[in-house]
Write a structure and sequence with these properties.
It is built from 17 helices and 17 strands. By secondary structure, the chain is an alpha/beta fold.
Length: about 450
């Protein structure tokens, strides 16, 4: 009886009389209700709204239905204000009285097209659709939970679905400002910049190469180059001790064999100490949770923008069978991928290859399943090849085997300077490049680009 009283329904000459209100909450019409003749498929056509008298500025949520019986049933069971609207009449004034509402459920089970049109009028961003295959009154009589049905309503505007207009301006900006969106450019490795275009936030890069090819030494200089330009960096060295890695970096930073120039050690050490370069204290096997927590803490406190994991196999340890190792590695890669995306932080991971072939490595050579190649945005491979000369020796080059940003692939020669522990060419070596060996393989200074 309380529900009937709240809606203003009265008993008159053994008939239930339901009042219909206008936007001013004035009664403009009445409807005679007959429970015995209620039709599931043909609700009474209303000349005016039913239930507007319950609506107040304190309400944040309502349910719109297409029949008086549905409104009464929903309110009785859920306690939520329910209003029955005339199907053909919806004035601007009526829209205004719903303006303060944050959430509007629409339960027009028999006319979904009308329900979506109504949502567009009422602002689809606050509307939720109930698509249960029966109306509220029938659902209640059949023993279904109206509270559950209402709670399972779905948003008309799904935040996981976008249309072109959502990112139209972003596309225009990327086309007009391509260099800025391409990311931070390497100064020591201009060929790498030419292929990858730059180092971008939120990406995952995988570096691989055969044992002893110089992955850590290259990665040290690769990250130092970016750090010198202000990119806050966190280096996790799980294979070699941190102070040995820092010694390599300091040598690369100074451009000198400091063991022969100890008089300038403090000068370069003081300068290096001011760089936004941080190191994890881990060495050897470590849990992924502890590593991820450390990375998250560094992002929050030091505004870290680049994290290096060198390398994945040492971090994992060896306490796994082959199948378990594949599963564990896939889990780690997924966690690093998620971290990079969620924190807009670039993560670079070193992964050893599963095999070392004379004819070179490929993406399929990366240890583990295909997870690493699928999840990564960029794949870099340090290749080694024996020279067909009398003196023999190896030639090294860096191959960009994957580039999700624009798809351009390529490779370029890596020349190692033992004094500087550097793969980048000093100014003097560039000037003297014309005096080097005439070996055709060593003269490949120009970039090899694949589309």
């Amino acid at each position: 009886m309380t529900t009937l009283q709240r809606y203003g329904i009265r008993l008159y000459q053994e008939q239930l009389i339901a009042p219909l209100h206008d936007t001013e909450r004035s009664i403009v019409n009445i409807v005679v209700l007959d429970p015995m003749s209620y039709s599931d498929t043909k609700p009474i056509k209303l000349p005016a709204p039913f239930g507007l008298n319950l609506l107040s500025s304190r309400n944040a949520e309502i349910i719109l239905v297409d029949s008086i019986w549905d409104a009464l049933c929903v309110y009785q069971v859920t306690g939520k204000k329910a209003i029955a609207l005339p199907s053909a009449k919806f004035s601007i004034r009526m829209n205004m009285i719903f303006e303060h509402l944050r959430k509007i459920h629409i339960w027009y089970w028999n006319d979904k097209a009308l329900a979506f049109r109504l949502a567009n009028v009422l602002n689809p961003h606050r509307c939720f659709m109930i698509t249960y295959p029966m109306n509220a009154y029938t659902a209640f009589k059949s023993g279904h939970s109206l509270k559950t049905i209402v709670n399972e309503s779905f948003a008309v505007i799904n935040k996981c679905i976008e249309q072109f207009d959502t990112f139209r301006d972003l596309i225009r900006d990327e086309l007009l400002q391509r260099t800025r969106f391409a990311g931070l450019q390497w100064q020591r490795f201009p060929m790498l910049t030419q292929i990858l275009k730059g180092h971008r936030a939120g990406e995952l890069t995988v570096l691989t190469g055969s044992t002893g090819c110089g992955k850590t030494t290259f990665l040290s200089e690769y990250s130092l180059d970016l750090c010198l330009q202000g990119l806050s960096t966190l280096f996790g060295s799980f294979e070699i001790q941190t102070h040995r890695l820092a010694k390599v970096m300091l040598t690369q930073y100074s451009g000198l064999n400091l063991s022969k120039h100890m008089d300038v050690f403090d000068k370069f050490a003081d300068q290096f100490a001011r760089l936004p370069m941080f190191f994890m204290t881990f060495h050897g096997q470590e849990s992924i949770d502890k590593v991820i927590n450390t990375m998250g803490n560094a992002v929050a406190i030091h505004n870290i923008q680049h994290v290096i994991i060198d390398n994945l196999q040492f971090m994992m340890g060896m306490d796994y069978s082959n199948n378990d190792r594949f599963f564990k590695q896939d889990t780690l890669i997924h966690r690093f991928r998620k971290f990079a995306t969620n924190n807009k932080c670039h993560v670079t991971i070193v992964i050893h290859p599963r095999k070392e072939e004379d004819d070179g490595l490929s993406i399929s050579s990366i240890f583990g399943s295909a997870k690493a190649s699928q999840e990564s945005d960029n794949i870099l491979i340090i290749q080694q090849r024996k020279l067909s000369t009398v003196n023999g020796g190896n030639i090294k080059y860096l191959q960009v085997a994957k580039n999700r940003f624009d798809g351009q692939l390529g490779r370029f020669i890596l020349r190692f300077d033992k004094e500087r522990l550097s793969f980048s060419r000093s100014i003097s070596s560039r000037d003297e490049s014309n005096n080097e060996s005439n070996d055709s393989e060593q003269q490949q200074q120009s970039i090899s680009v694949e589309q």
